[in-house]
């Protein structure tokens, strides 16, 4: 089987789209389709069912994907291992991060690391904490940084730092608030809420429960899927939100947002470095993990 055809198949399988696979491999959609069709003809089976615009792998497609992914992983590990023999750090590291780590903690680490090791490519993927844990457990990420982790026997985690979260609002919205906002008053405010699975939401929910208030009691103005979307909604005056100081520092310093101090509401969450206990990490992955722990310290 031709490696180019297998790569095309793998990309279509994982992206569930011929067009996205073409973009990923810098090939036209027709070339991707030809590679997959040729592979199906060679194997004498249908690898995908085309139902409308949906691409659904067949049983044969699932089997081929599992075997091909392992083959490519072995090839990549062999290439990296051979370079390791010469103490030459190179290859690809696939890292996952929940929103705050991916946007505000990892970029500087990656910049320093790639400057030191220019033949390493870091593939940074973003998701909520649960998604990143699941991807690490599935073997799709070398390691991840999350604001909350899934308790699983195959998942090893180490504390990186503790992060204090704040209730923030636009200056105009704060003018309409009482001078002191107590936890029981929070249910009267319009809230911009993060999605389930978000580490920020989990930490907020835990802190609210300690104050005797449930998230179900809050008036949710909008439910958003990212920190950036939440911050933009708060800037627009749509409601108040909870986030890390890291995400709103520039807006606080510019006077566009303000922190609402709520007596008794202490929202702190931890960031963890996670990886699969059974995964073999080669030098570039191990060294990037070490670099993360060196740059991101508990007092950060």
From TrEMBL:
Residues 1-58 form the HTH lysR-type domain. GO terms for molecular function: DNA-binding transcription factor activity; transcription cis-regulatory region binding. Keywords: DNA-binding, Transcription, Transcription regulation. It holds the Pfam family LysR_substrate. NCBIfam families: LysR_Sec_metab. PANTHER family: HTH-TYPE TRANSCRIPTIONAL REGULATOR (PTHR30126), HTH-TYPE TRANSCRIPTIONAL REGULATOR GLTR (PTHR30126:SF40). Belongs to the LysR transcriptional regulatory family. This is Transcriptional regulator, LysR family.
């Amino acid at each position: 089987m031709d490696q180019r055809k297998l790569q095309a198949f793998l990309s279509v399988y994982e992206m569930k789209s011929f067009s996205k696979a073409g973009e990923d491999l810098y090939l036209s959609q027709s070339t991707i389709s030809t590679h997959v069709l040729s592979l199906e003809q060679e194997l004498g089976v249908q690898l995908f069912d085309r139902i409308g615009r949906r691409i659904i792998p067949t049983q044969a497609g699932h089997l081929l994907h599992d075997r091909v992914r392992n083959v490519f992983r072995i090839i990549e590990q062999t290439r990296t291992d051979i370079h390791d023999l010469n103490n030459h750090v190179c290859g690809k590291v696939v890292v996952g991060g929940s929103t705050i780590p991916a946007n505000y903690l990892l970029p500087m680490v990656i910049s320093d690391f790639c400057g030191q090791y220019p033949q390493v490519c870091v593939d940074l993927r973003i998701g909520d904490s649960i998604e990143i844990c699941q991807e690490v457990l599935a073997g799709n990420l070398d390691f991840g940084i999350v604001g909350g982790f899934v308790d699983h026997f195959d998942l090893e985690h180490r504390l990186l730092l503790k992060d204090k979260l704040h209730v923030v609002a636009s200056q105009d919205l704060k003018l309409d608030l009482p001078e002191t906002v107590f936890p029981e008053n929070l249910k009267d405010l319009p809230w911009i809420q993060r999605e389930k699975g978000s580490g920020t939401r989990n930490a907020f929910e835990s802190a609210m429960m300690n104050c005797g208030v449930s998230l179900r009691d809050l008036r949710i103005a909008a439910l958003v899927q990212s920190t950036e979307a939440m911050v933009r909604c708060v800037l627009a005056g749509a409601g108040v939100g909870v986030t890390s100081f890291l995400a709103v520092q520039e807006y606080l310093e510019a006077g566009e947002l303000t922190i609402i101090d709520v007596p008794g509401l202490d929202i702190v969450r931890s960031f963890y470095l996670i990886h699969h206990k059974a995964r073999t990490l080669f030098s570039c992955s191990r060294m990037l993990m070490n670099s993360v722990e060196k740059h991101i310290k508990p007092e950060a």
